Structures are given as structure tokens and as C-alpha cells.
Description:
Elements: H1 2-6, H2 25-36, E1 40-44, H3 53-58, E2 62-67, H4 86-93, H5 97-102, E3 107-109
Amino acid sequence: xxxxxxxxxxxxxxxxxxxxxxxxxxxxxxxxxxxxxxxxxxxxxxxxxxxxxxxxxxxxxxxxxxxxxxxxxxxxxxxxxxxxxxxxxxxxxxxxxxxxxxxxxxxxxxx
Length: 111
């Protein structure tokens, strides 16, 4: 929640235990989508190979993939080191962290 507050993210968080859903793997994800009223499920890169796209289609949920290229930002020591945590961005850039993240939106792709 600290990150959400600092980055001014107002998305509502829902715990799985708050939903009345059952299942495993792809079926559990589909049940979560249905419980939340979602018509699209976004999956990043290689994670899609673990999903059964046919099951999503049968339940009328669009499966889309996305590609996210992390931003390059000033770091205090040496060359830029990619793929660190959001805390690294905040520690190095302070209040500008949100603006840096907002300029680097993911690219939504087909499936």
C-alpha cells in the first residue's frame, strides 16, 4: 500500500479470499474474471504458455498479452541497472517516479 500511496494509484485491491471462487490454474483465473466482471484478461509475455486460451474463449473472456519495457531512469552509482524494484526507482527519483512510470505504458498485443 505504501507504493500505491506514493505513486497515487487508486485501484481497488481485492483479496482472493474475499471472492467466492473455486478452481485451479486457468479455471481459477476465469472464475476470478467472472467474479470481478472482467471481459478481458491481460497476460505478460511467456506466462501465456501456462494458460489454456480455449477455456477463456469458451467463457467469453478475451485473452490479450502485453509487453512492458521498463523505463530507464537516473541511478546514483555507475551504469543503469535494469529490472530492479519500484523502490529503486523511488529511492533514486523521488516524486518524479510516478511521472517516469506513467510515460512508459505497456503495449497491448493480440493473443
